[in-house]
Amino acid sequence: MLTDTKLRKSLGKRRDKVEIISDSHGLNVRLTINGGVTFFYRYRWQNKPVQLSIGDYPSISLSQARERRQQFRSWITEGYDPRRQVVMERTKKVHALTVNEAFEYWESHYCKPEGLIKIHKNRQNFENHISPILGDMVVNQTTKAHWLSLFDGMGRRVVTGEMLGLMSRAFRFCSNRGVIETNPLESLKRSDVGMAAAMKDRKLSDDELRALWDALADMPARQQIVMRFLIITGCRSTEIRTSKWEWFDYRAKTWTVPASEYKTGRTVRRALPQVAVDLLREHQKTSVTRHVLTRSRYKGPEDDKPPAQPNIAFFSAQIISKTGMKAWSLHDLRRTVATRLSELGAPPHVIEKLLGHQMGGVMARYNLHDYLDDQHHWLEVWTEHLEKIIGRPLVAR
Predict the structure, then answer these.
(1) Would you call 334 a catalytic residue per the annotation?
(2) Three-class SS state of 23
(3) Annotation marks residue 146 as catalytic
(4) Catalytic annotation present for 366
(5) Cα angle, residue 263 at apex, residues 382 and 286 outer, rounded to 5°
(6) Where are the beta strands (DSSP E) in 199-266?
(7) pLDDT tier for residue 284 given thresholds of 50, 70 and 90
(8) Residue 58: is the preceding peptide bond cis (ω within 30°)?
(9) Which pLDDT band, with edges at 50, 70 and 90, does 103 fall under?
(10) Which of these is catalytic: 95, 251, 365, 366?
């Protein structure tokens, strides 16, 4: 039997000839003339003797060599030649994907074909938080400890949980496709590393809606169109910020956000109240661009691009500063519209469609009706209610 003491004494000791010392069940060690110590495994395959090298001591410990012997014996029991299995292992190691390569594989084989619109944002987050630390490591060689160390270094924040979710999706896809052997994040949950996004309940009162609407009167046209459109429709600020005139059908009183521009990657058609149509028509009279909104310093057709989101988000801060209102965000306007529609009696499924949400559960697959007639009805109810709050028509007639 081999022992660590015997191996240590043999290491580096010159001898007159090569010696072989056996352990058990086919594990042996070769002691060279120059004092080298090498583990190897002896077995028979198809009635022929075979020798298979395991590695040199002490790079390979005695316990590791014994574990390797057990792996070889298991392969033989299952009917596999250990020589072939070792070659396959080496091939896998040569082609093993790094974390950077696995993320790129997910992007190329899933995100881009599916037309996911958050590809750029996901890539930016990956390069900021993941790639500098673990990007060059082979995925199969990373452990849960590596990832917990990375996430702990980010701090217990919302973005930390988002990064875990992002990498879990990428690794799950790669694992299912067989390009990585294991998913090191498989058992981790967002609550293990990061905070959940806080559930907000800010909504504007009637007095606040009136103050907001009145404050828009002497603001630039771009601020007015954005804020009024958000209050009237309850849409996302990104949707009106990036919208093009071709998305709107004034005759049908609808607007369609194409899949390439929508959060869920699906085309969404929604109703428009007459007030919104009138608002857009008036604004279009002075527009010379394809986009409803352009940058504040428009330089010509080559500069026909929507304004950046931070610029639009700043509109709420301007109004808060002007009116002294309690802080609110553009997304709070969306919550306000949804809440008020519910209070007015609008059915939940109609509100979901007005907000551009996908239906939940089985309805998402089988119920493709957009309830446009119902959307039009409840938007008119909402605009009439707004006019009562504000005390005058929403647009000049």
Answers:
(1) yes
(2) coil
(3) no
(4) yes
(5) 60
(6) 248-249, 254-257
(7) very high
(8) yes
(9) very high
(10) 366
